[in-house]
Amino acid sequence: MQYKIAVSGAAEISHCCDNIILLSKEVGREIARAHCVLVSGATTGVPYFSAQGCKEGGGFNVGFSPAESEVEHIRRYRLPVDVFDVMIYTGADYSGRDIIMTKSADAVIIVCGRIGTLHEFTTAVECRKPIGVLLGSGGMADKIPELVKGTYRGIKKIVYETDPIALVQKMIEKVEQEKKKARL
Q: Do 123 and 99 contact (CB within 8 A), yes or no?
């Protein structure tokens, strides 16, 4: 496995684009094809569908749960466990989980999204992670270009793309550039 790529997006997808399930799964399949690990917040919607796509592609999924145990993950949060190869129970609720998950990844891909996705995005910016934004997926992803206008910190590490396959490939290139710089 090469790199850890987090997929952040809407757990509730009614406001996303019409083909959000297909796009999410394609992101996951491409992460698997690239022999990378898919990291997510172990929730429903975009993160779940991308994890399904990764699993269908023979990939490896790591879920970061807001719960402190599997029982709490399933009963209290009502979140899935079926597609994850490894589940990390953070016990940090949603906001704490977001930070732990985002910091664990080499790069973050934003697909659709709401406020939690914005939190993961801003965490990735602050941590200077390469960030990919799937434009046309709806929600927060389509608002990010306007939100970052006039800012400077981390803006060069944001990649915008409408094609999920191209986006994953560009994120891998960004991570490779980061790793190469770190070795110098």
A: yes
In this predicted model, what pLDDT tens digit does every residue of 23-40 receive, in sequence order? Answer: 999 999 999 999 999 999
pTM of the model as a whole: 0.95
> Looking at domain 4-179, which of 3.40.50.2020, 3.90.25.10, 3.50.50.60, 3.40.50.450 is its CATH number?
3.40.50.450
Tell me the per-residue pLDDT of 131-148, one tens digit each, with 9 for 90 and over.
Answer: 999 999 999 999 999 999
- The residue with tokens 């985002």 is 102
> Which are the contacts of 124, defined by CB distance < 8 A and separation ≥ 6?
6, 8, 102, 105, 108, 131, 154
Q: What angle do CA 144, 149, 151 make, to 5 degrees?
A: 105
